[in-house]
Specification:
The complex is a heterodimer.
Chain A (H helix, E strand, L loop, with lengths): L4 H10 L7 E4 L2 H9 L5 E5 L10 E2 L7 E4 L2 H11 L3 E3 L8 E2 L3 E5 L5 E10 L4 E7 L6 H7 L4 E5 L8 H10 L4 H20 L2 E11 L5 E3 L2 E5 L8 H4 L9 H8 L3 E4 L4 E5 L2 H13 L6 E4 L6 H12 L6 E8 L4 H14 L6 E7 L2 H9 L5 E3 L3 H11 L2
Chain B lengths: L10 E4 L4 H13 L3 E5 L7 E2 L3 E4 L2 H8 L3 E4 L3 H13 L4 E4 L6 H10 L6 E3 L5 E4 L10 E4 L8 E8 L2 H13 L4 E6 L10 H10 L5 E7 L4 H12 L4 E6 L23 H10 L3 E2 L6 H9 L1
Parallel strand pairs in B: 1-2, 1-5, 2-4, 5-6, 6-7, 10-11, 10-12, 12-13, 13-14
Antiparallel strand pairs in B: 3-4, 8-9, 8-11
Classes of the chains: A alpha+beta, B alpha/beta.
Chain lengths: 392, 297
């Protein structure tokens, strides 16, 4: 799950992470009010879940989703050109993204830009800090071209980040003796946020030093551990459904693990590994998967029916493949779910079904007696071939 | 021999009075597995099914029944604590079936387990099966959620990050008549107790295991790490399948661990690296048995 930049700023403020002042605005009037609280230069930033905003273009012709202005009047005028308009960047695709809010923030003078991130690292089974003196640029390029400029520090999961580690990092990054304490304090507060919010990743790029001796987190990207969202309703509330694929939003309502893709063969599978492998084998036989869908082990008939509704509601879908190897999942539940779906919605594309595992005999019998035009498959290979053939 | 668990291994089930744990405890009993106890805090003194005693704590269950292995079916918010309780009670093996445990919890569990003699398998895994020799492989040790009938006692060791893909590999090797020594689902989470490599080493040392199927997916480097070790140290034929060739980068594909984050952890990169290690690659999930046959020669 992603959050907006203004929400990241709110999290920073909550955990005492030093960051330039600012607030979110939903209208030019709100933008003016927010800008009036700022001394000096003001930056106006369009809030969408996509990178490359500065170099983006609005569909109304207005250039750039990030602007530097001198007055509250100018901030209001720029906000007016952004809010309600569609911004196209290299990450949004041609359709672009509708801007509903802008961030009005204090613009700071920058002495130097750094990179600082914390990730939950699987190799160490621990949080690992990755930092570099080369900030404000693409960190993958730094790692590729000048790996010696990447600093890593492994944090003991039971002890947490120690103060000496934060000071050591500050000096390794080239902060001066005067800057060391504010830098270390910033690192420790980002770590506290990372742990307290069950983050999978926090990436601050850039983290900056200013000419007047401050060390600030300027822009950040967050990744949250979906498994831990149950204990963070405040973070779950930051979810912006407008920024997500509507098919995925709908699937999430029914606890279905769905990811939309661009192909035309929909699949409904139990188990994440098998769901991925089913997409792979469709591709192997020349088809193109429309989605990843893991109905999970404990799916009910209602969930299966809703899964079908979502698949059939996608205009790109030309055929459906159901691939079930029941372990926790029972084949008879899937079969009844399919019949339940067929009663309520018209399944007007070829439907290939492969069932194996727990209660397979009952499942096959239910489908055979249903009178539905189902194409039965013997095994996964047969299923993939048949679904690709069905639309050839 | 088989690895990790044998036909007579004494098993306890944590979370046996819940719907999910209870259903699979009963299926294991029906399979002929020696399920000797259940544990649910606050329900000590009850009986599960016809005669399985339920205890309040793992320590009591171990003292009374001599169980050495636990299956954890406890819901995610309480699962980390349940695993640590099994470790504290001195179990040889804890198999955590639970899906959806916060990664930070598992990180602490793993750090807290350092120096203990308990092995953790999972979490978010289908469990461990050493098939029996009866009809539909009954009489074996089934820990977790795998359908029992698809197994057949035999010579193939199966290790996998995915549940349902494990079933595919098991079913294919059963249909080929090879059967399985032991099937181990190590789980789909980014932080787990036991790696592909750990299990590969056990299969290498197990006389009953004659060949190995290794199933992985996108994300991390555990499969390649295992492959590199096998190239130098494993004398048994290995076939591998890596799921996720069509997964878009940066998206979490169901399993918390299944996310392409660099360039080295794509399915294509892993398959190429494993092939270099002399491992037979299954191009599709339905070719796992076929790839193994090619490896055996």
């Amino acid at each position: 799950m992603n959050i907006h930049e203004y929400q990241a700023k709110e999290l920073f403020e909550k955990f005492g992470v030093a960051t330039p002042g600012g607030s979110v605005a939903n209208s030019p009037e709100e933008a003016r009010a927010a800008a009036e609280k700022i001394d000096g230069k003001i930056v106006v930033k369009a809030q969408v879940h996509a990178g490359g905003r500065g170099k983006g273009t609005f569909k109304n012709g207005f250039q750039g989703g990030v602007h530097l202005v001198d007055s509250a009047d100018d901030a209001a005028e720029i906000a007016g050109k952004m809010i309600g308009e569609t911004l196209v960047t290299h990450q949004t695709g041609e359709e672009g993204k509708l801007v509903r809010k802008v961030l009005i923030a204090e613009a700071v003078d920058i002495d130097h830009e750094y990179y600082f991130s914390i990730v939950m690292d699987r190799e160490h089974s621990a949080p690992v800090i990755i930092a570099s003196r080369e900030g404000g640029v693409n960190i993958e390029d730094v790692a590729e071209n000048t790996p010696e400029k990447i600093i890593t520090e492994v944090v003991d999961p039971l002890m947490g980040l120690q103060q000496y580690q934060a000071r050591k990092l500050a000096k390794q990054l080239g902060f001066t003796t005067e800057q060391m304490r504010p830098a270390a304090k910033l690192f420790l507060s980002i770590y506290k946020l990372f742990i307290s919010c069950d983050c999978a990743m926090v990436e601050v790029n850039p983290l900056v030093a200013t000419p007047d001796g401050q060390v600030l987190a300027l822009d950040a990207k967050f990744g949250f551990d979906d498994n831990a969202l149950y204990r963070h309703p405040e973070i779950e509330a930051m979810r912006d459904p407008e920024e997500e694929d509507p098919r995925e939003v709908e699937a999430a309502k029914f606890d279905l693990n769905y990811i939309g893709l661009d192909g035309n063969i929909a699949c409904l599978v139990n188990g994440a590994g098998l769901a991925m492998a089913t997409m792979d084998i469709i591709k192997h036989y020349g088809g193109d998967p429309a989605n990843f869908l893991d109905v999970g082990g404990g799916a009910t008939e209602e969930q299966v029916t809703n899964a079908f509704r979502i698949l059939c509601g996608d205009p790109k879908v030309d055929a459906i493949l159901v691939n079930i190897f029941g372990g926790i999942m029972q084949c008879d539940i899937i079969a009844n779910g399919i019949i339940g779906a067929a009663k309520n919605i018209e399944i007007n594309v070829p439907l290939v079904v492969r069932l194996e595992g727990t209660n397979v005999a009952q499942g096959r019998e239910i489908l055979a007696n249903s009178g539905l035009p189902i194409i039965n498959a013997e095994d996964l290979d047969d299923a993939a071939k048949k679904v690709v053939e069905s639309i050839a | 021999m088989a690895i990790l668990v044998q036909e007579d291994t004494k098993v306890l089930v944590q979370g046996i009075t819940g719907g999910f744990g209870g259903k699979h405890a009963q299926l294991s009993l029906d399979y002929g597995t020696n399920v000797v106890a259940g544990v649910t805090p606050g329900k000590g003194g009850q009986t599960f099914g016809s005669s399985t005693p339920v205890y309040d704590t793992v320590a009591e269950a171990v003292a009374e029944t001599g169980a050495t292995v636990s299956a954890v079916f406890v819901p995610p918010p309480f699962a980390a604590d349940a695993i640590l309780e099994g470790v504290d009670a001195g179990l040889d093996l804890v198999v955590a079936i639970t899906e959806g445990i916060p990664v930070a919890d598992m990180m602490r569990v793993k750090a807290g387990m350092k120096g203990s003699s308990t092995r953790l398998i999972g979490p978010n895994c289908p469990g461990v099966v050493t098939p029996g020799t009866g009809t539909d492989s009954n009489g074996g040790c089934r820990i977790g959620i795998s359908p029992g009938y698809i197994h057949k006692r035999g010579s193939v060791g199966v290790v996998s990050r995915s549940g349902t893909l494990t079933y595919e590999a098991v079913w294919q090797t059963t249909q080929l008549g090879l059967g399985q020594s032991t099937c181990v689902g190590i789980g789909g989470d980014p932080i787990n107790g036991t790696s592909h490599l750990d299990i590969l080493k056990m299969f290498q040392d197990d006389p009953e295991t004659e060949s190995i199927i290794l199933i992985g997916e996108i994300g991390g480097n555990a499969e390649v790490e295992a492959g590199r070790w096998a190239q130098e140290n494993c004398t048994k034929p290995i076939a591998a399948f890596i799921a996720g060739a069509t997964a878009p980068p940066g998206r979490r594909m169901g399993h918390a661990g299944a996310i392409v984050s660099g360039g080295d952890d794509t399915a294509q990169a892993k398959k190429a690296a494993l092939a270099e290690c002399g491992i037979s690659i299954a191009e599709t999930p339905s070719d796992m048995g076929g790839a193994l046959k090619r490896a055996i020669g």
